[in-house]
């Protein structure tokens, strides 16, 4: 073979191998590397769900607990922050399609979501609570087995009623489910702790004494959502969350937006920890 033929053969071979090389590079690429190269974290938050993320009435800028968590996470990762508002319905699709890098939107771990996305270590554990007439507040969970409990249709609150062996009567909105308890159509109303606290205060102003039972109906670990198949990003987010927690940043953000000094009166009882450390029955 002459030199000219050898050169043509090498050129042809390099052209053939180029797609293989590009495919190999793509396979080795990962979301964390892309984010670091970009220098910016695209963080999905609610567009209007206070106190997690909603427009400030004066500045129209997004503010809230999840906004502050995004800010702290980006800083911990050494990145600029790009907030990307989304709706409750779209929050999973924006992750799976890669429109956002991470999602901080009061995201509870469920079996269905875990099959679609990956979760960080939880930074707190939300609870589905049972609101009842005050006379029934001291009753054990067995007392409510087979009894009618109200909840918003299609929610984890409804799922928790079935787990307790009770009968669910459901409504399209929270207010109607709450009204069912007021009108004695149910012996209890299931919702998250924050909503339960608000409803109890509202009822008291109207002269009705309600209370939460001592036991939770279900536990819901709240974490940061990411696209599946990104172990490097997951590890980085988890170490960043732990560092934020150890530095007291998450407690500070919590106290500002939903702590005991706010109308939500929430106490943060859980620190950042692996999901496997928690003993809970995942909801669907």
Class based on secondary structure composition and strand pairing: alpha/beta
Helix content percent band: 25-40%
Number of β-strand runs: 11
Elements, N to C (H/E): HHEEEHEHEHEEEHEHEHEHH
The low-confidence runs, each spanning 5 or more residues with pLDDT under 50, are 2-28
Q: Average pLDDT across residues?
A: 87
Put simply, the count of helices is 10
What gross morphology would you assign?
A: globular
Rg from C-alpha positions? Answer: 24 Å
Distance between the termini: 67 Å
Beta-strand content estimate:
25-35%
Main sheet? 9 strands, mixed
Question: Key terms for this structure?
Answer:
disordered N terminus; 284 residues; alpha/beta; 10 helices; 25% strand; 11 strands; two-stranded antiparallel ribbon; 9-stranded mixed β-sheet
